Amino acid sequence: MLPISNKTSTRISLIVSVLLVIALIVLLPWVPDVVRSMLDTADNVGDRAELSQEARTYVLIAAYAMIAVAFLAMGLLFFLLFDVLRERIFQPSLIRWLRGLSWCCFGEGALFFSIGFCFQIALGVGLAACFLGLCLRVVKNVIAEAIRIKDENDFTI
């Protein structure tokens, strides 16, 4: 595999992020149809047709909330990637972006857990989102410690 520079890799990440945001925007009008189709599809666990209208409305609201959290996460990711492009790695702003991204992952996990009564696979997705949030917290803590050590060494003669 050809080696790719860090700047090129970061630019590729930015391009993919922009494409994902565009995809989210384009798909927004079809969210109610997709949710309705998913709720009307029977599975091995039970018949979702028995769900009340309130439960169906809750799932739709949860879907829109998931998309809102995804937009927030994408915004934070853009800030993070722009800091990396500017080579501002050991800055407190990087910690803020990572912290925000981790909370977005936990938020997505909670939203997916909340629809687990309808979609059993949502429990697995929620667990994966929470695990990703935990990984981001660990990376944030490692970078925060590296910043502390760097600042301490900058004051050393």
Identify the overall geometry: elongated
Task: Provide the number of structural domains.
Answer: 1
Kindly state the percentage of residues in helix.
over 70%
Backbone structural class: mainly alpha
| Separate helix tally | 5
N-to-C CA distance: 43 Å
DSSP strand count: 0
Q: Would you kindly provide a written description of the structure presented here, covering whatever features stand out?
A:
- With 157 residues, the chain is mainly alpha-helical.
- It has one domain.
- The protein is 78% helix and 0% strand.
- It contains five helices and no strands.
- Helix 2 packs across helix 3, helix 3 runs antiparallel to helix 4 and helix 4 packs antiparallel against helix 5.
- The longest helix is centred in the C-terminal third of the chain and has 35 residues.
